[in-house]
Design a protein that fits this description.
Blueprint lengths: L17 H20 L1 H4 L2 H15 L8 H4 L6 H26 L5 H27 L6 H22 L13 H23 L1
Helix pairs in contact: 1-3, 1-5, 3-5, 3-6, 3-7, 6-7, 6-8
């Protein structure tokens, strides 16, 4: 007797990054409420930095795939498994950042661009770190990256304050050395993410 087998790849459900969607929504909602209740606190640089780090931490969960060990036997490219959750999660993070910007007082265009570059690079760092851990057989790297990245960001802020230099480019001229360094980090993270995704 011959049994017709349906391709397993056709039955695999699309993963919705609920943690990223919920985390991004929470960040946007909290900053919006804080801006309404205490505008001075919402506008402080520390609050903005915390919102940026929280959004990046939310993005760290985009590559979590508890069923990764099971889907290895399925001939489905890794980039196809990641495409939908990463695209949907980045849309959620982007929408949350827009909500954060709207909750703040009007910003000068150079400052707004620099802040957006910061968020984009932090999200790319989260994705690259999660991708590296996933390539090392960690099915849910978000738990590790979402803790380590905010701690590293806060540590950089403290260290910069102690040593007297700015770590984030939004406090400096847009075309400064720090901005170029952040852009270089972002490009490196994209390369790491692509290589680790294609190598699997």
């Amino acid at each position: 007797m011959t049994v017709a087998l349906r391709p397993v790849t056709a039955t695999l459900p699309l993963r919705v990054p609920w943690v990223t969607v919920a985390g991004s929504s929470l960040v946007a909602g909290m900053l919006t409420v804080l801006s309404a209740l205490a505008p001075g606190s919402a506008e402080s640089p520390l609050t903005v930095r915390l919102a940026q780090l929280a959004l990046a931490a939310s993005a760290a969960y985009l590559l979590d795939d508890a069923g990764a060990a099971l889907t290895r036997v399925v001939p489905r490219p890794l980039w196809r498994r990641r495409l939908f959750p990463v695209a949907l999660g980045l849309m959620a993070v982007s929408a949350a950042w827009v909500a954060v910007v709207l909750a703040l007082p009007p910003l000068d265009q150079p400052v707004l661009r620099a802040l957006t570059v910061e968020v984009a690079v932090l999200v790319l760092v989260a994705l690259a770190a999660s991708s590296v851990l996933a390539a090392r057989d960690e099915p849910e790297p978000g738990n590790l990256v979402a803790v380590a990245l905010p701690l590293a960001g806060l540590g950089a802020l403290v260290l910069g304050g102690v040593l007297g230099f700015e770590v984030f480019p939004s406090q400096l001229p847009l075309h400064g050395v720090m901005t170029a360094a952040w852009a270089s980090v972002g490009v490196c993270c994209v390369v790491v993410f692509v290589r680790t995704t294609r190598a699997a």
